[in-house]
């Protein structure tokens, strides 16, 4: 019988256990091997990314936000808010060059919770059209992927290639991106025409990847394609926060001293003088903080070299050791000056006694209230009740022989200085003091109405005065001249009794309007340094008035014309009263010497009313010679009733007053129309000048000097016309701006007209004063220039005025000579006619 073997029971034998154990070990080894491989791969990836990122990594910020201005405080708050943003929204740091925007971006990163991660920076100007360096290409990752959950700073985003703007927009808005494709890369520069990968089929594009990093950006220009996709931090330029200049320069000086000390050298404690600080605060700093840092470093090196040179010279002479105190003066900051300020000289610094005089009570208060307030009523009384003719009335002689000509002499020297000692407003201010002492409250200025209706009122009043002067012969009528002074004084008193300060002087006074216009020709100006005012001043006493502010600020009622000296663009609304200089505790106000007429091309406001007034004053010169003007046409002024008070005399006076302005405007319109139609404007201008030459140098010119001078006037204009004939024609500035080119001619013509009174009859003032009390033949000295000398000076003035007007017109036109030949022809013709009238 077969033996049946039963199967052995399945017990866990050693071998089985061994097999089981082996099987388990093999599984563990496999998992361990995978883990090891994964760790190695991660380490390898980390090393590869670290190597990739190394050239791009940024260190911690160099410095925080330095300064105490409201702009600096706001910037700090924006940085803190961006740093604490848990959503890690993209941030654009926007501002001009030199504002250390990358440092601000670093502050955002290192001030937030992600400070322990990397910060990498990539200059967008170096990216190509594909953006492979940023996004990667093929199997190679880009910076946006390599940075991981760190922060990526894209510098100069405004220089990003246009083809990458849509991809950047998606990265910011969706936090996704695609690597550049190899196929597109192979296309080369022609692929730029695609502008983005989005034009390719979806299946041909690399997959979208999600970016884990935070994006920070800097730009100095607007990037419209990414507007709204990032939080914007606008960094204000340094010129808007001059209050921070003091803190910044102090920081840079400390850094310089620390660096030199750490290098084994020795450097004294560095600081700058008050004058140097004001100079730095006044500069615009187009290069912002970077320029300031470089300027401070350059100044320190220059001061060290100067001290070393002085020390060497001292030792050679057996004297000083060349030790430097470490204090920097304004001389070493010569580069920190505005271009326009380099042609200006602060007279208060150059001549300190002038500063003492202008800050004293003598100017102008004592002159006004201790002298003029008593003398002026006497002058008016003598005009009203004294002798009435010019040879017996000293008041009339002073009025027309001295006051009026000397006012015109003062314009190119001191601007509107006459208004500081004007007798009209002395009584207006006395009335104001009387009313306010009684508890009355003066009204604020109706500024909008004054600016709208003031110029027409001023122009109309001046036209009436000039017509009155001509028709009623005011220069030879003391009684009417006295009433003219009373009328103007009454206007000042009435306005001052109602409104505060000097509303009359700024908007309504005809003499003030003329003074303000001619003051633009002045070689001096009163200005405050804007940066010093913005950084140091908090009271504005120079503008609104206030109590004394030690150590140097004096009590002041403020500017009588409501003009802030740092905001003035021309001399029109500055009366040189120096209230701003007295009130300022910061040394900001300066009295500067400058190029004459600078206002006219450096920011003044052109005004139709002012141009109309200017041409009317030119017409007044012709009007003063009306009989000669009519005689040139072969007519008799007396027979026509133009030498008496007649309606035809009044009508003719108005016509002559407005004729020069209408002629100048008509020439400008005709010239522009001719240029637009392609007509040879140069030939037209040359013909006009030639006609003027033949007319002036004809039989009516009785003196050789007159003919020669007239020929010189015309020859210069003809030469300019001939030289400009071949130049390309370009439309110049509008007539209302270009017309200010006539201003030097108007000033010269008016002064030339009054010059015989000043140098002739004015020299007999002692004899006139004696004659007024009955001593007709008193043997008193008299000074009178020879008629030929006066004629020479008149001719010189006219030539100077014409030449200066031509050069100024060229400056204002900002165009070739050929573009404004009608104006040159007009200047020549007007000057030629003036020559014929003033130098017969």
TrEMBL record:
Keyword field contains Metal-binding: no
GO biological process: regulation of DNA-templated transcription
GO cellular component terms given for this protein: plasma membrane
Places the protein is found: Cell membrane
Main subcellular localisation: membrane
Residue span(s) of domain Sigma-54 factor interaction: 65-301
Keywords for this protein: ATP-binding, Cell membrane, Membrane, Nucleotide-binding
Biased composition (Low complexity): 13-22
InterPro entries membership: 4Fe4S_Fe-S-bd, 4Fe4S_Fe_S_CS, AAA_lid_NorR, NosR_regulator, P-loop_NTPase, Sigma_54_int
Domain of life where this protein originates: Eukaryota
Domain 4Fe-4S ferredoxin-type per the UniProt entry, residue ranges: 565-594
Pfam family, one: Sigma54_activat
UniProt cross-references to Gene3D superfamilies, sorted A to Z: 1.10.8.60, P-loop containing nucleotide triphosphate hydrolases (3.40.50.300)
Ranges where the record places region Disordered: 1-33
GO molecular function: ATP binding
PROSITE patterns (UniProt xref): 4FE4S_FER_1, 4FE4S_FER_2, SIGMA54_INTERACT_4
Annotated protein name in UniProt: Nitrogen assimilation regulatory protein
């Amino acid at each position: 019988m077969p033996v049946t073997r039963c199967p052995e029971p399945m017990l866990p034998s050693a071998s089985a256990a061994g097999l089981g154990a082996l099987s388990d070990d093999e599984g563990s080894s496999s998992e361990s091997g995978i883990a090891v491989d994964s760790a190695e791969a991660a380490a390898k990836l980390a090393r590869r990314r670290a190597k990739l990122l190394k050239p791009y990594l940024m260190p911690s910020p160099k410095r925080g936000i330095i300064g105490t201005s409201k702009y600096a405080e706001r910037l700090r708050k924006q940085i803190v808010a961006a740093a604490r943003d848990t959503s890690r929204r993209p941030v654009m740091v926007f501002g001009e060059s030199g504002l250390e925007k990358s440092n601000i971006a670093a502050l955002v990163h290192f001030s937030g919770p992600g400070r322990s991660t990397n910060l990498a920076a990539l200059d967008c100007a170096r990216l190509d059209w594909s953006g492979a360096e940023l996004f990667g290409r093929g199997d190679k990752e880009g910076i946006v992927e390599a940075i991981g959950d760190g922060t990526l700073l894209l510098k100069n985003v405004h220089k990003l290639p246009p083809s990458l703007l849509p991809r950047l927009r998606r990265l910011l808005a969706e936090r996704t991106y695609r690597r550049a494709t190899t196929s597109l890369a192979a296309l080369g520069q022609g692929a730029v025409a695609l502008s983005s990968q989005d034009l390719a089929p979806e299946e041909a594009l690399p997959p979208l990847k999600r970016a884990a990093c935070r994006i920070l950006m800097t730009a100095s220009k607007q990037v419209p394609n990414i507007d709204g996709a990032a939080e914007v931090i606008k960094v204000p330029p340094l010129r808007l926060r001059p209050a921070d200049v003091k803190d910044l320069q102090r920081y840079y000086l400390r850094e310089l001293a620390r660096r030199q000390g750490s290098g084994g050298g020795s450097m004294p404690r560095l600081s700058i003088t008050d004058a140097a600080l004001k100079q730095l605060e006044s500069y615009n700093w187009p290069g912002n903080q970077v320029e300031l840092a470089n300027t401070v470093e350059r100044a320190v090196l220059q001061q060290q070299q100067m001290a070393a040179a002085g020390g060497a010279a001292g030792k050679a002479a057996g004297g000083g050791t060349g030790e430097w105190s470490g204090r920097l003066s304004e001389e070493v900051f010569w580069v920190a000056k505005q271009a326009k300020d380099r042609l200006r000289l602060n007279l208060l610094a150059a001549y300190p006694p002038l500063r003492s005089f202008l800050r004293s009570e003598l100017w102008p208060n004592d002159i006004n209230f201790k002298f003029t307030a008593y003398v002026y009523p006497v002058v008016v009384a003598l005009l009203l009740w004294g002798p009435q003719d010019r040879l017996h009335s000293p008041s009339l002689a002073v009025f027309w022989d001295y006051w009026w000509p000397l006012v015109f002499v003062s314009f190119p020297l001191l601007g509107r200085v006459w208004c500081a000692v004007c007798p009209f407003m002395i009584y207006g201010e006395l009335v104001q003091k009387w009313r306010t002492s009684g508890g009355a409250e003066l009204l604020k200025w109706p500024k909008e109405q004054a600016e709208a209706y003031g110029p027409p009122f001023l122009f109309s009043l001046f036209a009436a005065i000039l017509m009155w002067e001509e028709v009623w012969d005011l220069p030879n009528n003391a009684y009417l001249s006295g009433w003219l002074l009373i009328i103007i004084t009454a206007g000042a008193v009435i306005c001052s009794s109602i409104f505060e300060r000097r509303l009359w002087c700024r908007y309504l006074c005809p003499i003030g309007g003329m003074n303000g216009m001619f003051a633009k020709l002045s070689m001096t100006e009163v200005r405050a340094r804007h940066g010093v005012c913005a950084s140091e001043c908090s009271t504005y006493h120079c503008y609104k008035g206030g109590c004394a502010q030690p150590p140097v600020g004096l009590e002041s009622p403020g500017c009588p014309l409501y003009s802030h000296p740092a905001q003035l663009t021309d001399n029109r609304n500055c009366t040189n009263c120096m209230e701003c200089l007295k009130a300022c505790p910061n040394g900001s106000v300066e009295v500067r010497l400058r190029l004459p007429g600078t206002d006219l091309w450096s920011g003044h406001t052109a005004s139709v009313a002012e141009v109309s007034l200017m041409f009317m004053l030119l017409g007044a010169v012709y009007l003063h010679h009306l009989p000669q003007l009519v005689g040139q046409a072969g007519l008799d002024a007396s027979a026509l009733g133009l030498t008496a008070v007649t309606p035809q005399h009044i009508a003719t006076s108005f016509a002559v007053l407005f004729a020069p302005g209408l002629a100048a405007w008509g020439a400008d319109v005709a010239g522009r129309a001719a240029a637009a139609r392609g007509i040879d404007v140069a030939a037209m201008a040359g013909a006009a000048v030639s006609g003027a030459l033949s007319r002036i140098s004809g039989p009516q010119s009785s003196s050789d000097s007159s003919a020669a001078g007239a020929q010189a006037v015309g020859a210069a204009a003809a030469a300019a016309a001939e030289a400009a004939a071949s130049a390309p024609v370009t439309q110049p500035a509008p007539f209302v701006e270009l017309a200010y080119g006539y201003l030097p001619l108007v000033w010269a013509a008016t002064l030339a007209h009054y010059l015989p009174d000043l140098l002739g009859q004015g020299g007999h003032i002692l004899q006139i004063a004696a004659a007024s009390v009955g001593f007709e033949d008193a043997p008193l000295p008299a000074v009178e220039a020879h008629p030929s000398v006066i004629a020479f000076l008149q001719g010189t003035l006219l030539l100077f005025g014409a030449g200066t007007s031509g050069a100024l017109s060229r400056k204002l036109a900002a165009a070739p000579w050929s573009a404004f030949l009608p104006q040159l022809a007009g200047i020549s013709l007007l000057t030629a006619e003036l020559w014929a009238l003033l130098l017969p």
